[in-house]
Design brief:
It contains nine helices and twelve strands. The chain is α/β, with parallel strands linked by helices. A five-stranded parallel β-sheet has the order 2-1-3-4-5, with helices on both faces. Strand 8 and strand 9 form a beta hairpin. The longest helix has 14 residues. The chain starts with a strand and ends in a 9-residue tail after the last strand. About 30% of the residues are buried. The structure holds calcium ion. The site of calcium ion has 5 residues, from loops.
């Protein structure tokens, strides 16, 4: 049995496009074009994941989210507009597991879906094929010899402690949590500097440089990869070409 996904989106072309891509990936898909239909569908059937647009006719996506969380909790990825900062914050507060900003690359959406299903598998079908992801037990992220302990705010490489600033730590954590997913500078900026940050995205390049000087250079490893014109990625240890 494959994972069941509900796509809630009132822009028909976008809804159809996402539906076809998801079907192509082997998911079971249903769509809803307004808030009321979405709420009915999402509370009557247990979905493994809901992709939820926020600006919807009849019932706002955030309202749908709140009611679904109360009646039939389901992992939700929000589809948000670029400047809808408050929507993202309220959405995450209301229990959404992730969000993606429109317009998005379908590959990024698919990657986020895989991560969401992997991290929130309770309802997901047992045999859904997942990509190999780092074991993330109780806030511990690992990459080969590197361990990031979130609760203790510590990073160790083969037992050697690496001292990072808060933002460097957050940057490393974000990249590790999204292993094998290329993150754009915009995405990293939001996660690392917060929604309210106003400034140049090249501050991200500066943090990447600091991280490389503390990890890659010291331990002669190529951990953080640049994807030209897109952003940065940490590939899973097995996939990483230089170990
Ligand atoms: Ca909409």
């Amino acid at each position: 049995m494959s994972a069941k996904i509900l796509v809630v989106e009132d822009e028909e072309k976008l809804a159809r496009f996402v539906e076809l891509e998801l079907l192509h990936e082997g998911y079971e898909v249903r769509t809803a074009g307004n808030g009321r239909a979405a709420l009915k569908e999402a509370t009557e059937t247990q979905y493994d994941l809901i992709l939820l647009d926020i600006m919807l006719p009849e019932l706002n996506g955030l309202e749908v989210l709140r009611r679904v969380m109360k009646e039939r909790p389901t992992p939700v990825i929000l589809l948000t507009a670029r400047d809808a900062v408050m929507d993202k914050v309220s959405g995450l507060d209301a229990g959404a597991v992730d969000y993606i900003t429109k317009p998005f690359a379908i590959e990024e959406l698919l990657a986020r879906i895989r991560v969401a299903l992997k991290l929130h598998p309770a309802a997901a079908a047992a045999d859904t094929p997942f990509s190999s992801k780092p074991a993330s037990e109780e806030g511990i992220l690992t990459w080969g010899p590197l361990t990031l302990d979130d609760p203790k705010h510590r990073v160790l490489y083969s037992g050697h402690e690496i001292t990072l600033t808060n933002r460097e730590f957050l940057m490393l954590k974000t990249l590790l949590e999204n292993m094998d997913i290329v993150l754009s500078r915009d995405t990293l900026l939001e996660r690392v500097c917060g929604y309210e940050y106003v400034g140049e995205t090249n501050v991200i390049d500066v943090y990447i440089r600091y991280l490389r000087s503390k990890i890659d250079d010291v331990f002669s490893v190529k951990m953080i990869h640049t994807v030209r014109g897109v952003g940065y990625v940490i590939k899973s240890w097995e996939e990483n070409e230089t170990k």
